[in-house]
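Q: Structure tokens for this one, please.
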Amino acid sequence: MPHDVTALDHLTQEQLWDARAAATYDTPGTGMEAPEVLGPTVDRLAELAENGRALELAVGTGRVAIPLGRRRIEVSGIEISRPMIDRLREKASPEELPSRRAT
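A: Here is the predicted structure, written as tokens:
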């Protein structure tokens, strides 16, 4: 049976991307974090950035931005969810990956 996305229509972005979502978003080595998924994504974005800068909208927990920054791409992020930014800060400092909370 297909997932009914209308069941989520009443949630705000802050409710959808809460502390529980931030805590469980990263699953190292599986799903979106699997090397065969994340690796080619970061490779392509690094190629497009041409050793310049990148802005990631909805940077979340830094799943893409952090490995991109490790390739010497200057990355900044924008995120609406405070819990997602808090999780990002556990992994990267503001100096390593500047981010702003969208309101």
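A few notes: The chain has five helices and three strands. Helices lie at 13-16, 19-25, 35-49, 65-69, 82-91.
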